Amino acid sequence: MRRTLRAVLAMLLLPLAAAFTLLMPQSAAAASLTQVTGFGNNPTHLNMYLYVPDHLAPRPALLVLVHYCGGSAGGIFGGNGHDYVTAADRYGYIIVLPEATRDGHCFDVSSPAALKRDGGSDSTGIMSMVGYTRQHYDVDPARIVVSGFSSGAMMTNVLAAEYPDVFSAASAFSGVPAGCFATTDGSQWNGQCSSGNVIKSAQQWGDLARSMYPGYTGSYPRMQLWHGTTDTTLAYPNFGEEIKQWTNLHGLSQTPAATDRPQSAWTRTRYGGTGPQSPVEGISIAGTGHTLPQPGMLAYAITFLGLDSGGSAPPPPSTSGELHAVGAGKCLDVPNASTTGGTQLQIWDCRGGAGQVWTRTGSGQLTVTISGTTLCLDAYNHQTTAGTKVETWPCNGGANQQWNINGDGTVTGVQSGLCLDVTGASTANGARVQLWTCNGGTNQKWNLS
């Protein structure tokens, strides 16, 4: 069984990890991490890595970020979890990265010890890491959160069930309900669960989670769940079973309070509320397998987890210049240097004049000043769907006017996670600029200089 598990992991997960390794700068990530030893009770010999940004918020949040099978702390830090790192630099929160050391580098979410609070398995060691960090930094106890991918998503569910008095929110990408992977024969792989064949009622799932912390009567963390509809590693039915479990733990109906489509392939359902921090939120991604998170997704998770509020680090310095559309060899331009709010932006031959000089402010805005009037780069009407118009608007501090200029050349909306995009990859003067799903195209590459 162990050999089978290693083969499955190598075939399905390691290529994904390798792809992210090729895409992201690993050397910088590894240099930014600090390994911590002697952090407390660690019965399964996990490694602990800690990331503390240069500019720490006065009362920082704490994110526990848990890697996938076959992964590592450095791999997730510099790879598909890197947006969490850039956000930590911006908002001043701390990241704890547990690292599994057993054969296969998976986290134990199967043994009886793993599925009991302070039971003596991986979850016990991870909580020692949380305790160590709280002892050494003035962490805000109301903003300790957890997120993970695949095996890390399964651990995210387990930690939130076992330590609901510690974690305020959780975000799990491609996981299973807490307790679903339980085994009694020493194996860490539960084929029935992974294939989506463990089906229970909402009450049964809720009771299983409650059994991990007997006697607890308090509230449970907000839970955000992500899953691809064509996932065959941890099959898609697990998504619905997770929703059953967490709506039950929150005492909610399984009927959504709101349903929308933030991006064309996404279906988002919210339970117990309609806002960005509803008690339970599920996002299914049509036609996607075991390849989460994808570009733009972590921006939604950061907001859901509350990592973008409640105190921030000192802002980055302001930078001004033309915003060059790399693929077209032109500049982001306000048509006719208009000072009218709501003017949709375009690309045009660079001339450095009015309507083409942009300033990145310390609060993450991109502003343009024309005839003494300063306007902000704005996502129309706070929309977060692909195709949203990008316009100028009077600056108001809204999340739809905050932008990340990323190391890969993309400019992404903080609220939407979508990329600034030249429509149709056009290189013509007058081509409109919009928000679109990040896809790595040259029409989504920009340079402020």
Task: Determine the mean pLDDT.
Answer: 90
Task: Report the CATH architecture of the largest domain.
Answer: 3-Layer(aba) Sandwich
Strand order of the largest sheet: 1-2-4-3-5-6-7-10-9-8
CATH class of the largest domain: Alpha Beta
The number of helical segments is 11
Q: Based on helices, strands and strand pairing, what is the structural class? A: alpha+beta
CATH topology of the largest domain: Rossmann fold
Going by CATH, the homologous superfamily of the largest domain would be: Alpha/Beta hydrolase fold, catalytic domain
Estimate what percentage of residues fall within beta strands: 15-25%
**What percent of the residues sit in helical stretches (DSSP H or I)?**
10-25%
Q: State the end-to-end distance.
A: 56 Å
Supply the number of structural domains. Answer: 2
Notes on the structure:
By secondary structure, the protein is an alpha+beta fold. The chain folds into 2 domains: 2-305, Alpha/Beta hydrolase fold, catalytic domain (Rossmann fold), CATH 3.40.50.1820; 319-448, Trefoil (Acidic Fibroblast Growth Factor, subunit A), CATH 2.80.10.50. The protein is 24% helix and 23% strand. It is built from 11 helices and 22 strands. The chain has helices spanning 2-12, 14-23, 26-32, 73-78, 82-91, 122-136, 151-162, 191-194, 202-210, 237-249, 297-305; strands spanning 34-36, 47-51, 62-66, 94-99, 144-149, 169-173, 222-228, 258-260, 266-271, 280-285, 319-325, 330-333, 346-348, 357-360, 366-370, 373-379, 390-394, 403-405, 411-413, 419-422, 433-436, 446-448. The strands form 4 sheets. Strands 1-2-4-3-5-6-7-10-9-8 form a 10-stranded mixed beta sheet, sandwiched between helices. Strands 11, 12, 13, 14, 15, 16, 17 and 22 form an 8-stranded antiparallel beta sheet that branches. The chain has a two-stranded antiparallel ribbon with strand order 18-19. α9 crosses α10. The longest helix has 15 residues, at 122-136. The model is unreliable at 1-31 (pLDDT under 50).
